[in-house]
């Protein structure tokens, strides 16, 4: 079985971002720092940055992320949009509201022309999220 998992890049605030996502989605985050894995060209200031992190949620999805230390010639790559879809009204509406805290709602979670409830936001870490709740039983968020 193959899996497709979002892998986000940040510029030094991966730990904060992943702890926030764990508070939204539940689950535990595993972190590995660059200092734990000796890397050539790593500045001492970058040893505590996150080389890899992984959040496995009770809902069954996985989110991964890492920092991009400038001392290693890395830059955070542009992140796309993460889409959350399903028919669990309370769960998805809750995710939308929690992700919006400290961020910006770009399109409120409301009835879309195709009959589902849809909303889009940018969280406080600059990550864009789309939420689509299938079916007609969704409540405005």
| Helical run tally | 2
The overall pLDDT average reads 89
Number of strands: 8
Percent of residues in β-strands: 25-35%
CATH architecture of the largest domain: Roll
Largest sheet, described in full? 4 strands, mixed
- The third-level CATH topology of the largest domain is 2,3-Dihydroxybiphenyl 1,2-Dioxygenase, domain 1
Report the order of strands and helices. EHEEEEHEEE
Class by SSE composition: alpha/beta
Query: What top-tier CATH class of the largest domain fits best?
Result: Alpha Beta
Shape: elongated
Pfam families: Glyoxalase
Protein name: Glyoxalase/fosfomycin resistance/dioxygenase domain-containing protein
InterPro entries: Glyas_Bleomycin-R_OHBP_Dase, Glyas_Fos-R_dOase_dom, PhnB-like
Organism: Microlunatus phosphovorus (strain ATCC 700054 / DSM 10555 / JCM 9379 / NBRC 101784 / NCIMB 13414 / VKM Ac-1990 / NM-1)
């Amino acid at each position: 079985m193959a899996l497709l998992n979002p892998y986000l890049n940040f510029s030094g605030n991966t730990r904060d971002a992943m702890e926030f996502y764990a508070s939204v989605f539940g689950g535990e985050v595993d972190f590995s720092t660059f200092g734990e894995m000796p890397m050539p060209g790593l500045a001492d200031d970058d040893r505590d940055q996150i080389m890899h992190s992984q959040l496995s949620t009770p809902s069954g999805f996985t989110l991964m992320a890492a920092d991009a230390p400038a001392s290693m010639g890395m830059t955070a790559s542009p992140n796309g949009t993460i889409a959350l879809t399903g028919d669990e009204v309370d769960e998805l509406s809750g995710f939308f509201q929690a992700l919006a805290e400290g961020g910006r709602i770009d399109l409120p979670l409301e009835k879309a022309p195709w009959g589902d409830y849809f909303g889009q936001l940018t969280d406080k870490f600059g990550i864009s999220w789309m939420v689509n709740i299938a079916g007609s039983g969704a409540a405005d968020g």
